[in-house]
Structures are given as structure tokens and as C-alpha cells.
Amino acid sequence: MKQFKYELQEVLEFRQFEQEQAEAELGKALAVETEINNNLELLAQQFIASKESVKNSKNFEDVVSLNRYKELLDYQKEELLNQLAQAKLVTEEKRKILTECMKKTSALDKLKEQQFEEYKKDVAKKEKSFIDELGSQGYFKQNFKD
Length: 146
Prior knowledge:
With about 150 residues, the protein is an all-alpha fold. Helices cover about 90% and strands about 0% of the residues.
């Protein structure tokens, strides 16, 4: 009996490769988002720490310095928020690409499963036909006598 061969196996393997690449790209985009969020958290902690350091100071220069530092942190925060917005757009695009790749791969997997089920049915039918033919020719009666 000939073995099962899926005609679109190379296409399926290519789609699986594309899906793996899309997963890697999405992972990179999510890593960028995470890094930006971590930087935002760090800025918040730096602001709190600087505020605490000047909290009981009566020196005017410390207050002015804190105000300038706060302006710098606000500017950096705005830049990070802009970067985060861009990163979220990239992530969403990568997610859409991955979804499309998964759909294509899934469709080919289902087709392969259907063809394999048809193959198994065909093999079972041929085996039954072969056994019936042997039985009709008296093979079992001649070779397996009690």
C-alpha cells in the first residue's frame, strides 16, 4: 500500500515558517512596548525620589532645580508616550499579520487532516476488498483448516 503524501506539504511548511516568523516579530514588538512601559515606570520613580529629596528643603535653588527636573521628566514622559503609541500600532499590525498566518496554516492543516482521513478510509476499503477477494478464492479454507 502506498504511503500517505500530502501534495501541499511544502506549502504547509512554508506557512508554518511564516507563522513562526510572525510570532517572533510580535514578540519583538511586545518587548519594545514592555521596555517603554518600564522606562515610564522608572521616570515616575525618579520623580518621586527627587520630590522626596527636596521635600523638607528650604533652599530656593533646590525648588527651582526640582521644577526644572520635573519639566525634563515631563518632556521625557511625553516622548515615551509617543513612542508607546507608535509601538502599540506596530504591535497591532504584527498581531494582524500573525492572525492571518495562523488562518492560512490552520486551513492547510485541516485540509491535510481531511485528506488523511480519506486516505485511511480508502486503505481500509482496499484492505477489505483484498480480504474479500482472498476469501472468495478459497485462500482461507485451504491454508487455515482446523
